[in-house]
């Protein structure tokens, strides 16, 4: 009799696990469920030659595509900025028409909820 109860218990735990796993798959991550994904604000000027300054930001905390869009949107809101973030590499390439203080870029990322832990200035090699 005891074995039957244990078996049922294990079964219940297994079902519970599968259920929550499915939920995770369908709802994405961090509460952005129901297809409520973050929209990307496209930058109009996408000509690299218009952006002489380039900075790579290494960003902590991006775990899904929505995070990437949030970071990009925050940076692209700054004047003369074209930013593209990369989820896999955890970094963002920030192209600028004029020099923008690093602190300002960091602040933009920070207010979106992520942290810049390293930054590299890239010389224009054109
Ligand atoms: Mo996802 Mo990022 O739905 O903070 S937006 S992990």
From TrEMBL:
PROSITE patterns: HMA_1, HMA_2. InterPro entries: Heavy-metal-associated_CS, HMA_dom, HMA_dom_sf. Pfam families: HMA. Residues 53-117 form the HMA domain. Keywords: Metal-binding. The keyword DNA damage does not apply. GO terms for molecular function: metal ion binding. This is Heavy-metal-associated domain-containing protein. It comes from Candidatus Limivivens merdigallinarum.
């Amino acid at each position: 009799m005891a074995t039957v109860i244990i078996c049922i218990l294990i079964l219940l735990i297994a079902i519970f696990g599968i259920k929550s796993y499915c939920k995770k798959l369908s709802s994405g991550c961090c509460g952005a469920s129901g297809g409520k994904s973050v929209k990307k604000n496209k930058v109009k000027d996408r000509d690299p030659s218009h952006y002489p300054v380039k900075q790579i930001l290494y960003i902590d905390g991006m775990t899904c595509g929505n995070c990437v869009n949030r970071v990009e949107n925050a940076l692209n809101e700054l004047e003369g900025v074209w930013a593209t973030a990369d989820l896999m590499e955890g970094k963002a390439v920030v192209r600028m028409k004029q020099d923008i203080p690093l602190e300002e870029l960091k602040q933009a990322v920070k207010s979106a909820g992520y942290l810049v832990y390293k930054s590299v200035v890239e010389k224009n090699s054109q």
